[in-house]
Structure formats: C-alpha cells, structure tokens
Amino acid sequence: MARVERQRRDAYTGAMTPGSFPILFITATRIGDAVLSSGLIRKLLSEIPSARFTIVAGPVAAPLFLDVPNLEQIIVFEKAKDGRHWFRLWRQVRKRHWGLVVDLRGSAISGFLKRDRRAVFKRPPTPVHKVVEAARVLQIEDDPPAPYLYTSPETEQMAAELTAGEGPILALAPSANWVGKTWPIERFAQTAIQLLGDEGPLAGARLMVLGGPEDAQATQSLRNVVPKSRFIDLVGKVDLLTAHACLKHARLFIGNDSGLMHIAAAAGVPTVGLFGPSDESLYGPWGADTRVVRGPRDFATIAAVDPGFQQALCHMMDLPVDTVVSTARDLLAKTTGTR
C-alpha cells in the first residue's frame, strides 16, 4: 500500500514529455460533479493519444484522478477568502503553451494563457443532467461520455484483496454531505436485512459499507446485520479510487445522493440512488443499470418547504424501506447474469 501511495504522490509533480499535447483540465471541487465530468478525460485520451494532462481539482476531488494515464501533474485548487485563488492558479500554469484548455468552472483564466484551443463551460439556458452539461463543453452532448475513473493495477489488486471471499456483495453508502439528504441509518439496516435474509434475493451475501472517517460511528449499527465473516468495513479505511475499485466487485449498491453514489455508478455496479432535496434530473446516477427512488414528494415540493436548503432537518423521512427494497429487487432481477 505504501508503494501505491508513493506513486500517487509523485503524480502531483510531473514533467513535460517531449512531443506531447498538453491539456489543462480544470474540473470541479465536489466529488460528485468531478465524477460526472470524468468521462471527458477518457474521451480526450481516446482521440488524442499524445495528450498529457494537468488536472486542476478541489482538495476532495483531486485524488479521483491520480491514476489517469499520461498524467503530468495534479494541481489542488483551494479557494481563498480574498478571491486570489485564480491568480495563484494562473501563476502556476502561465508559462506553458497549452494545446487545449478545458475549463469546467467557466472562469476567464483561459483568456490569459497561451493556448491553441479552449473549451469553457457556459451555463445552459435550460438545466440538463450534469453529464450532458459537461459534454457540451466539448460540443459532444449528442453522445455524452459516461463517467469513468481510471484505476491502476495496484489499486485493482488492493481492491481484490479487500473484497476477497465467497458470495455476492451488497454495498451501502449511508452518508451524505448534509443531514437533509441522509436516509436514516436504521432504514439502511432494515433494507439490508430484507435483501440479505433467508427469503431475500441476496440471501447469504456479504455486506460492504463505505464512507469517510466521520461516518464510522453512525454506521456501527450495520455491523449487526450479518455475521462478522460476511461484513466488509471500508468506512474511513480506503481512498476514493480504492473504493471505486472495490465497488466493481459488488452485486448491488444502495446509497444517498452523494459522491460515492456517482462513483458506484461509474464502477458499473447496479446502483439505487436515494433522493429527496436534490434534483435527479440533474444529479441522478448515470447509466442503464441505475435507479432513483424518492418518497411521495418531488424535488420542487421539498424545495418549496426549504427554499435555501439551510434547515437542519432530514428531508428523507417519507422514503419508506419497502420502496427501496422493491426497487432493489427489480434491479437485481433485471441485471441477473450481467455481473
């Protein structure tokens, strides 16, 4: 593991490769947004084999790109209270002549850089899904590239070791970045019990739980759902790319609208996303084997109750366990034999 971490740290400081096509790729601060636009990197790499990437991302999203092929540098972009973060970034990249600048933040920085081409985000007049929105930056919205995260052989090997064992895996991510988007943990437990129980579609399967270090205490109750030998605890124990690689081994993922939900969908695992105070038409998990569930209230109804989404209350209480279990059963049945 130490060797992998050294390789990843080294990716933050790369050198120019002769004969390369340098691309400055400025992506999002949030994990979910960064994942949803990640397919653009794969698209560019497939069409420009000589591409060499310098990727600018926020601190939490930056690790998602550590295994990107032809990566020269990752610049961790942190906002400053005085607004000088763009000037600091300009100073870091101004000496390079860029073949292409892709700016998903819609800033003016590309106008002050030496570059042959630029592709800059412009807010669409009508909101569209974030995958389509990102594709519009490269004018490929008619065939938007699906989210895709690169993982190294070392990362895949680590994930294989962490998920080794008998039987399929039900993956749960019960956390979110705000209490309003967080389905109660006891309902996750009830869902897992129904799916993994003797009469469930995943009877005898293993349970894998993911989240950050801050989620460790909240997820303790899920330990009692299955015997210790069938419980895979990854909460606060793996980085984002390793979590992504581990999710490739899962049979089904269930989680709140969060970065981990988008990482799961990008991994190709059948994904059930739980929604309340967020708009699934913009942020729903991407892919044919994904589903969105919510309670009887749509996004507009919840937004009317909490217009600024500042209230410290859960907007997910009206989503019943039966709805989630029914959707999970249906998705499992429709993806039988595909994984």
Automatic annotation (TrEMBL):
It comes from the Bacteria. InterPro entries: Glyco_trans_9, LPS_LOS_Heptosyltrfase. The keyword Glycosyltransferase applies. Keywords: Glycosyltransferase, Transferase. It holds the Pfam family Glyco_transf_9. The keyword Repressor does not apply. SUPFAM superfamilies: UDP-Glycosyltransferase/glycogen phosphorylase (SSF53756). PANTHER family: TETRAACYLDISACCHARIDE 4'-KINASE-RELATED (PTHR30160). This is Glycosyltransferase family 9 protein. It comes from Phenylobacterium ferrooxidans.
